[in-house]
Design goal:
The complex is a heterodimer of chains A (483) and B (213). By secondary structure, chain A is mostly helical. Chain A has 19 helices and no strands. Chain A has one domain. In chain A, 72% of the residues lie in helices and 0% in strands. Chain B contains seven helices and seven strands, in the order βαββαβααβαβαβα. In chain B, strands 1, 2, 3, 4, 5, 6 and 7 form a seven-stranded mixed beta sheet that branches. The radius of gyration of chain B is 20 Å and the shape is globular. Classes of the chains: A mainly alpha (483), B alpha/beta (213).
Chain lengths: 483, 213
Amino acid sequence: MSDKDDIETPVVTEAAPILEDENCEPAKNSGSLDLSAKPESKSEPVVSTRKRPEFKHSSDLETSEVLPVQASEAAGKEAVSKDVPQTGWGYWGSWGKSLLSSASATVATVGQGISNVIERAETSLGIPSPSDISTEVQYAAGETNAKESENSSPVSGPFGVFSTISTAVQSTGKSVISGGLDALEFIGKKTMDVIAEGDPGFKRTKGLMNRTSTLSQVLREVKEKEELWTSNEVTIETDKKTHYGLLFDEFQGLSHLEALEMLSRESEIKVKSILNSLSGEELETLKLELEQLKEAFSLAEFCEEEEEETKGDEDFTKEITELFSQLHVSSKPEKLARARNTAYEWISTSLAKPLEKKEEGEKQLEAEEAEQISNSSIEDIHAFAIRSLAELTACSIELFHKIAALVLHGRKQEVSAIERSRALSQMTVLLCKELSSLSKEFTTCLTTAGASNSASYIQDAFQLLLPVLEISLIENKTELPEA
Amino acid sequence: MEAIWLYQFRLIVIGDSTVGKSCLIRRFTEGRFAQVSDPTVGVDFFSRLVEIEPGKRIKLQIWDTAGQERFRSITRAYYRNSVGGLLLFDITNRRSFQNVHEWLEETKVHVQPYQIVFVLVGHKCDLDTQRQVTRHEAEKLAAAYGMKYIETSARDAINVEKAFTDLTRDIYELVKRGDITIQEGWEGVKSGFVPNVVHSSEEVVKSERRCLC
């Protein structure tokens, strides 16, 4: 036990800068108030308009709570893989299953590269013991191979449980190994949240939004964990390049999401107060119309779409531009299209599927090109893939944020909220597909985590637009009574 | 090491439409001048690290607001979570200078219970021949509100760096003195991560191994 004492010291200093600052502030009790409020709020159902709590404290709390244990956990990978099963293996197991069934498609296509993929998945997700997992992968792959044939997309399935958890897992994974129980607890809570919803099969991502914390808050939390981890691992600076959350923030994805949430919340409050002020027939008519809007928001079939061949640059740009014009907002999706096309250019020039030994002859590889892309560039591909997904996702969120701003404050347009909702819904599908096919381009060296996260972020952002469209519908009604 | 910073400050940039807010920010964050740009929709985001003392970095999260009146209700919502602000006017546009009062009044109402450290920025100072606002009167106005005044040009890269870093330093001093504190539920100032007290897990592992021996 004496060794624990020795190890504990550095861990304490780790948290010191944050705690120090907080001790300085006079209004300290307000902080602790919130701390006690936090756990109970977790179990509360939907309160999406609730003022966002500060989460820094929660992570501090977790850290200080579990400090003694954490010290031993922090001792190293070996310690973790041995100790974890007792405390949290149930969690690992449950998400592992869904992870694996979704990963199995990847595994199937890659075939021989199985250990490669596992290793890659292991480094990205921070799965504690590669050997444990690989055994499970083989089981899972065997089980699901028949059902999930190659044409099932590796990213189409896991929107529900897996994506929510992998958000946490992917980013906290490293700190599970190095940081210990606090991260495990963090993942555990997220896992429990999802399990508590009791619907592991659900395809659409209600997951992140319908809980007490807002999406951007969850993501910020995750990013801060990543940052903490990154600053801990000062020696492995390059790994920052592959941290989805950090990159997503670097492309201002978090900020746009936060701004979108603000608009969404505001609209929601307005809608509610208007509904409260109405009665009788007026109320019923409005409710009916709002119901139609809601339908448009649930129409989008995000997954299980038939596979499409990768579209050309023009197609995507054309399609997104067309959908955008249906929205009648004075803005263009140029930035998004540019980011998307840059990614594909990069793929076609420098990647061209070098590691895959696929039977399908699509995009045949020149021998010299293959040599050019040596093993040393695998890291680059991985980094670029994560970066592209993060950028594209951030651009998509930015687009949704701008749409919200323009719907609310743009000049009056000859378009109904319903029409806009339908276009938005289609746009969401298009963007998710695009991300999915982009990530497929990177499949050989990527886990599916990035893409499924991206897709769920976009879908959540899309859902945030509902109140915005609702209020715009109401305002249009009141401004054009004759129409 | 770029991820390591002492604090994060959220700054807001406000002022009339077309005074050059986005251009100033882009010059500061991207180091280039964009001649043509569409009017900002709602709000845009930029970030940059600033080294205020050797080894002490501050991450600036800059909220670039739309100057257009129609977005005012959106941009208002952002004052509250900012610790600092650049209030811009165009020295060749008298009207934008006259509106400075209005901007300050508006922020005062919406920032509560917090406060924002503002700097008054006379922008487009490269266009001195078209000047409609003298330096003297701008300085007087700034002083009346307890602000600093600085003249900048995004096109010629004059004082752009200084405008942001001076403001950052001033805020940093206030934070150091405890006049501004990190608060629950407020995004204006956040603390970052300090590298030198951090021990990597590798070291921890090593030290444990030594103990076992």
